[in-house]
Write a structure and sequence with these properties.
It is a single chain. By secondary structure, this protein is mainly alpha-helical. About 55% of the residues lie in helices and about 0% in strands. The radius of gyration is 11 Å and the shape is globular.
Length: about 60
C-alpha cells in the first residue's frame, strides 16, 4: 500500500477538484482507496468539522 499523507501538496493531488472542504467531505462520506467511508457514522456537522480541520491543518502544518 502506498503511503498517504494529509500534507497540503498531497491533498492538492489526491482530492478531486483540489484541496477544498467539499472534496474532503466527499472522501470522508464515501471513502476512497484505503480510506473507509464514514458517511453512516458521522453526522453532517461532524463531517463538516473534519473537513474544516483537515484543510486548516494542511495550511498551518500538522506539526504546529
Amino acid at each position: 500500500m502506498r503511503e498517504k499523507t494529509l500534507e497540503k501538496d498531497a491533498l492538492d493531488q489526491y482530492l478531486a477538484g483540489g484541496r477544498n472542504e467539499a472534496a474532503v467531505i466527499t472522501i470522508v462520506t464515501n471513502g476512497k482507496s484505503a480510506m473507509p467511508a464514514f458517511g453512516r457514522r458521522l453526522g453532517e456537522d461532524d463531517t463538516q468539522n473534519v473537513a474544516a480541520y483537515v484543510i486548516a491543518t494542511s495550511e498551518n502544518g500538522w506539526d504546529n
